[in-house]
């Protein structure tokens, strides 16, 4: 059986949850002022200057388009080692209670 084309491949759970979280975050308003959120650059005299998204991408070539996804994929297993979830092998960015990525050792949420 042929592999699905990249445009039609199934989206893994963590990736689809990440897209949801980003969309949810942006729907709260930051996308309306995204240009204001970009860090300014400093010139040699210490003066701040606005820069475009493209300039920011060029100055951070080490950051891949899926950088945030990679971070999210690594956070869960690291947390699970420190504070085991109530149900093992269930990986979700949207978990609640003992499955939440915001859980603490005392069972509370941050």
UniProtKB/TrEMBL annotation:
GO terms for biological process: cytoskeleton organization; regulation of cell shape; regulation of transcription by RNA polymerase II. InterPro entries: Bromo_WD_repeat (IPR052060), BRWD/PHIP_N (IPR057452). It holds the Pfam family BRWD1_N. GO terms for cellular component: nucleus. Residues 2-80 form the BRWD/PHIP N-terminal domain. PANTHER family: BROMODOMAIN AND WD REPEAT-CONTAINING PROTEIN 1, WD REPEAT DOMAIN 9. This is Bromodomain and WD repeat domain containing 1. It comes from Equus asinus (Donkey). The gene is BRWD1.
């Amino acid at each position: 059986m042929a592999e699905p084309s990249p445009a039609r491949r199934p989206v893994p759970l963590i990736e689809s949850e990440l897209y949801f979280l980003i969309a949810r975050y942006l729907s709260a308003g930051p996308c309306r002022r995204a240009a204001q959120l970009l860090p300014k650059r400093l010139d040699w005299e210490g003066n701040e200057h606005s820069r475009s998204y493209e300039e920011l991408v060029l100055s951070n070539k080490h950051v891949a388009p899926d950088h945030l996804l990679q971070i999210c994929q690594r956070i869960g297993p690291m947390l699970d080692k420190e504070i085991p979830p109530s149900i093992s092998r269930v990986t979700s960015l949207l978990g609640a209670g003992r499955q939440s990525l915001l859980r603490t050792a005392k069972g509370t949420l941050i």
